[in-house]
Design goal:
Radius of gyration: 16 Å
Mean pLDDT: 89
CATH superfamily: P-loop containing nucleotide triphosphate hydrolases
Shape: globular
Number of domains: 1
Number of strands: 8
CATH class: Alpha Beta
């Protein structure tokens, strides 16, 4: 099999991160969480006192920042922010940053550079629609709102501790609305993506389902 570019999109709590990491591990590919890049920029903007509504300033910050996203760590200008960017405050900051077209332009270009040689599984909200419209494989993960809220509430990587499901459900609804209505790269499934509903399924079952999609659709001649 040739080195593929695999795009995995979907809303918060659908299982993108867990599934994308597992698929990348199975294939021996690099895994990139594109959302972590927006989170890192949001974290840095807050730390530096840059208004998240100042598009030019946030874009300049993104342009000059060195962001490294590995399978285990996220750093910005050599500061490890792996845990610091997984908070409700940074959730909101990332959503605000992601609405800025000039910031998206900077980060999308970096994401494309990362996939120049293929062999990558990238997750996000616009990977199959904007970043890699010609990706070899496109998968859109989704789940019921209740299940997504339960997963996120019990994920200490995002909340620090288990949180109230009702509280998280409200935050997810707000984030969904922001993602789906933003003028730059709104969240939706690409027309040629395989949609996988992860509701009630184990991680292993979803991973195997995605790997089947890779085997079935990943042998074409499309490129990035």
């Amino acid at each position: 099999m040739k080195s593929l570019v695999i795009a995995i999109d979907g809303p918060s709590g659908a299982g993108k991160g867990t599934v994308a990491r597992a698929v990348a591990s199975e294939l021996g590919y690099r895994h990139v969480d594109s959302g972590a890049m927006y989170r890192a920029v949001g974290w840095r903007a807050i730390r530096d006192g840059v208004s998240l509504e100042d598009e030019a300033a946030v874009a300049a910050l993104a342009e000059r920042s060195r962001i490294d996203v590995s399978n285990r760590h996220i750093t910005i200008d050599d500061v490890d922010v792996t845990r610091a960017i997984r908070t409700p405050e940074i959730d909101r900051a990332a959503a605000a940053v992601a609405r800025l077209p000039r910031v998206r332009s900077v980060l999308v270009e970096r994401q494309r550079q990362m996939a120049a040689t293929g062999a990558i599984v990238m997750e996000g909200r616009d990977i199959g629609t904007v970043v890699f419209p010609n990706a070899d494989v496109k998968v859109y993960l989704d789940a019921s709102p209740d299940e997504r809220a339960r997963r996120r509430a019990n994920d200490p990587a995002h909340t620090g501790v288990p949180a109230a499901v009702s509280e998280v459900a409200t935050l997810l609804t707000q984030r969904d609305e922001l993602d789906r209505t933003r003028p730059a790269s709104p969240l939706h499934a690409a027309s040629d993506a395989v949609v996988v509903d992860t509701t009630g399924k184990s991680v292993e079952d979803v991973v195997q389902e995605v790997l089947r999609v890779v085997r079935e659709h990943g042998l074409g001649d499309s490129g990035t």
